[in-house]
Design brief:
By secondary structure, the chain is mainly α. It has five helices and no strands.
Length: about 140
């Protein structure tokens, strides 16, 4: 048991990749669909730009084995930076929170929301595993 707990403290690059894929599929693609006006108005796209980061981080934190908070945060920051770079290159992409004017502020917001979401997902995971162990 101690070995398992010790291994959960190591940085897990596979969860950076898994989280990155989750953000691309569940966050970027949804933003692109919303941008096309298929599912939303501008306000719902902006809400998803913030809430999506939090929710995907929470899901990834819950699904991962061990503690993977920083891995999820790194993936969120990478996606945010990629969206910014794409917008600077003139590619049509829904940039969260109007990144073009304040990229550092946006990265900070994405960092905080993904950190909180990953932490919440880990807490839920820990709570459920504690309940199973008690049974």
């Amino acid at each position: 048991m101690a070995d398992q707990a010790g291994s959960s403290k190591k940085f897990q690059w596979k969860w950076v990749v898994i989280s990155l894929v989750m953000y691309i599929v569940l966050y970027v693609l949804v933003l692109l669909i919303m941008q096309g006006g298929v599912l939303s108005t501008e306000i719902t796209a902006r809400i998803w730009a913030v809430a999506g980061v939090f929710l995907i981080a929470a899901i990834a934190g819950y699904l991962s084995k061990g503690v993977t908070i920083w891995e999820i945060v790194i993936a969120a920051v990478i996606v945010s930076a990629l969206l910014y770079i794409m917008s600077e290159l003139g590619l049509t992409v829904a940039v969260p929170l109007g990144t073009g004017s304040k990229p550092v502020l946006t990265l900070l917001i994405i960092f905080v929301f993904s950190l909180l979401g990953a932490w919440l997902g880990e807490r839920i995971q820990k709570s459920k595993s504690a309940k199973k162990a008690a049974e």
